[in-house]
Design a protein that fits this description.
The complex is a heterodimer of chains A (76) and B (488). With 76 residues, chain A is mostly helical. Helices cover 47% and strands 0% of the residues of chain A. Chain A has helices spanning 3-14, 35-49, 65-73. Chain B has a nine-stranded mixed beta sheet, with helices on both faces. In chain B, helix 2 (28-42) packs across helix 3 (60-72). The termini of chain B are far apart. Classes of the chains: A mainly alpha (76), B alpha/beta (488). The A-B interface holds A 15-17, 26, 28-30, 32-40, 42-43, 53-54, 56-59 and B 83, 108-109, 227-232, 250-251, 253-254, 257-258, 261-262, 389, 419-421, 438, 441-442, 445, 450-451, 453, 455. Chain A: Residues 1-76 form the Carrier domain. Chain A: Keywords: Phosphopantetheine, Phosphoprotein.
Chain lengths: 76, 488
């Protein structure tokens, strides 16, 4: 999955405008995703891509789309 | 005993840690010290009798101290949730007309003090505004304008929830009602001196606020997550040695699913888990396989009546009502009577009379029946309410927001099951011309709290009607069929 495909996936799940979803945007401050929405987003990403959430070990992993992408997909 | 401080703060608990956050532990003495600082700031002889003071203060210690100090000075406390967006906040401020507002400047990209200033200027309101970055150091500004009417009561609380007509409902209760709730909650969650809880309910709702006051009063400890940061929550649970959890089912599920692989011991150490805010299906808690030794108790509460009853979530979901309530079922609806029932909806006499009878019986709006053992079985809701992630969403409010959008002619909002939120918000709209649903999501997100924003919006040609009303059953079936088709 490319980063652009990942951005589109986040936009589809969260209904946030794709322009707001950039590598270094803050999920909380720039995209407006609150705590439970974050859980929903992570569960939906796992369901739709089959990736394991066990890779998330640090709160920095889901601070921004870029960090989440690298934590879940290792940049591949 | 005159004030909440007199009731809650006990000398024998002064050195006991009662509130923990990610980075700090606070004793009763810390709270007392901050109370004194805030009293000095406001002037110990200030009189807030009859005045309403709104608080948008996420920092728990500052929030609780302000609650104590405003109560001591005779004022009425109006807690405001940091989940509110501009539309919700303006509606609440217009209903409450506060004399004084304490607000943090901004949080999560939302410029709260600007929103407050705009409301004050736009309404030409005489109001004292306190602003702070974190909640400890406050800058005061006095705005001149039209004086708000004072209430005839003092030391009350007004807890705002969404109203079906788009006007927020302010649930009014005196401090004596809050003190009754403080008698009930420890019975429901088995709260005892020295206990250590993870405490998830928001501090701005009655259950959350009273839970913290109970901890101070009885000397147990509540660990409160400042934000949803799982590794930090796990660290805090380990540091505090949490043995009991008070949460919504959806938050617990989220925490469990994302962290069970990282730190299974945290969950295995939980002895008792109290879940409130959403209905739980029979057997649902068995999904928490690491917590097979944990006692799971459901807590049923309503803002207007406090925490009312509990049930064993591993059992038949038959609820035991707390000793302080009289209860009966009339035409399938659960009625309650007790000194813990609210006083009225703020400035809404008609709405109050609809649910609170003159002899003190409160109509809960929940459909129920009684078992031969005098236990309550809840069957559904009479009122049209969606419970999403422990928060109440009133379809009428979301429909009104959608219908305010330029080309939306009509909107109908229903609740549908959701694996994370418990229930989700689904909107059907009829449009006068092409509507960009992406823009509509964005529009809603700017107007109402995130949890009220529809999770799905679908355009349809016509809203189905039955007997002159929206036929929501047909819409529910339509959504269910659509989900089935998508899953195939």
């Amino acid at each position: 999955m490319t980063f652009d495909q990942f951005r589109q996936l986040i936009a589809d799940i969260s209904h946030a405008p794709i322009e707001a979803i950039q590598e270094h945007s803050s999920f909380r401050d720039d995209i407006g995703i609150d705590s439970l929405q974050m859980v929903n987003l992570l569960v939906a990403v796992a369901e739709k891509t089959g990736v394991s959430l066990g890779n998330l070990t640090d709160s920095d992993d889901y601070v921004s789309p870029g960090n989440l992408y690298y934590a879940l997909f290792g940049g591949n | 005993m005159n004030t909440l401080i007199d009731y809650c703060m006990k000398k024998e608990h002064l050195n006991r840690v009662v509130i923990s956050t990610f980075d700090h532990d606070y004793t009763v003495q810390d709270i007392e010290q901050l109370n004194n600082e805030f009293l000095d700031m406001l002037g110990p002889t200030s009189d807030l009798t009859g005045k309403r003071v709104a608080l948008l203060v996420p920092q728990t210690l500052a929030y609780i101290s302000l609650v104590f100090v405003i109560n001591k000075l005779g004022g009425t406390v109006i807690p405001l949730s940091p989940q509110h967006r501009e539309g919700d906040l303006s509606a609440i401020l217009s209903s409450a007309s506060p004399h004084m507002i304490f607000t943090i400047k901004h949080l999560n990209g939302m410029p709260y003090s600007d929103v407050m200033k705009e409301w004050i200027r736009g309404n030409n309101a005489e109001c004292t505004l306190f602003e702070s970055e974190e909640g400890m150091d406050w800058k005061r500004t006095d705005f001149e304008g039209k004086q708000a009417v004072k209430d005839t009561f003092d030391r009350h609380f007004i807890l705002f929830t969404s109203g079906s007509t788009g006007v927020p409902k302010g649930v009014v209760m005196g401090q004596e009602v809050i003190i009754h709730h403080m008698g009930i909650i420890p019975r429901l969650i088995n709260g005892q001196e020295g206990d250590r809880y993870l405490h998830i309910p928001p501090q701005t709702v009655a259950f959350g606020l009273v839970g913290i006051l109970c901890a101070i009063h009885l000397g147990y400890r509540v660990a409160i997550p400042n934000q949803f940061d799982l590794p930090k929550i796990m660290n805090m649970m380990n540091r505090v040695g949490v043995q009991k959890v008070v949460s919504t089912p959806s938050i617990l599920k989220g925490m469990y699913n994302l962290s069970k692989a990282i730190d299974p011991l945290v969950f295995q150490n939980i002895k008792e888990c109290y879940l409130a805010g959403e209905m739980v299906n029979p057997g649902e808690v068995n999904e928490f396989t690491l917590m097979e030794k944990t006692k799971f108790i459901g807590v049923y509460g309503i803002t207007e009546a406090g925490g009312i009853m509990t049930c064993d979530l591993r059992g038949e979901l038959e609820w035991d009502v707390d000793e302080v309530y009289q209860f009966k079922v009339v035409e399938e609806e659960l009625f309650l009577k007790s000194p813990a029932i609210f006083t009225c909806y703020y400035n809404q006499l008609g709405m109050t009379k609809e649910v609170l009878q003159e002899d003190g019986w409160f109509q809960t709006g929940d459909l129920a029946y009684l078992t031969p053992e005098h236990k309550v079985v809840i069957q559904g809701r009479k009122k049209d309410v969606i419970k999403k992630g422990g928060q109440q969403v009133i379809p009428g409010e979301v429909e009104k927001t959608l219908e305010n959008y330029k080309s939306v002619k009509q909107a109908a909002v229903i609740g549908a099951p959701h694996s994370v939120y418990g229930e989700q918000v689904v909107a059907y709209i009829v449009a006068e011309q092409d509507v960009n649903t992406k823009e509509l999501y964005h529009y809603c997100a700017n107007k109402i709290a995130a949890y009220k924003v529809p999770d799905h919006i679908e355009l349809i040609d016509e809203i189905p009607m039955t007997s002159g009303k929206t036929d929501k059953n047909t819409l529910r079936k339509r959504f269910k069929n659509k989900e089935k088709t998508l899953k195939k």
